[in-house]
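We read letters as residues; the integers encode the fold. Take this protein.
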Amino acid sequence: MSNFRGAKLALFLGPDLVVIQRDDYAHIPYPGCWDFPGGGREGNETPEACALRETREEVNLSLSASDLIWSRQYGPNWFFVTRLGKQRIADIRLGDEGQSWRMMAPETYLSHPMGISLFKTRLQDYLTETQTGFFTPSF
């Protein structure tokens, strides 16, 4: 775990996901695409701490490690899933990264042309393994 680079969080509030439209700068990966909260590791933080910090910074939601219900390491990066009630939508405030945020059904994300294919695969892994839903992605 000490050599990981970053973490992402598929954050379900009710049945839908919180997604962030990335800034549209040529120097960043996936400019303008729909992304999940997350980012690069700071200092010696754990993967969980990284995902939770980035979520707080990007959408103003403070979560705890006990909210993380599924995780998997993909190479040097971690992917987590949280499912909370839709009442938390009222607490969302976009941080200083990203153009906007929205709620998106998982099947919409999986088929969205501006969804990030890497994260589509990881979301599909979670949905398939937990039998939460079987969506046929078109990516």
Summary: The chain has one domain: 6-129. Residues 6-129 form a domain with the Nucleoside Triphosphate Pyrophosphohydrolase fold (CATH 3.90.79.10). The beta strands are 6-13, 16-21, 34-35, 38-40, 68-74, 77-84, 100-104. The helical segments are 47-59, 106-111, 117-129.
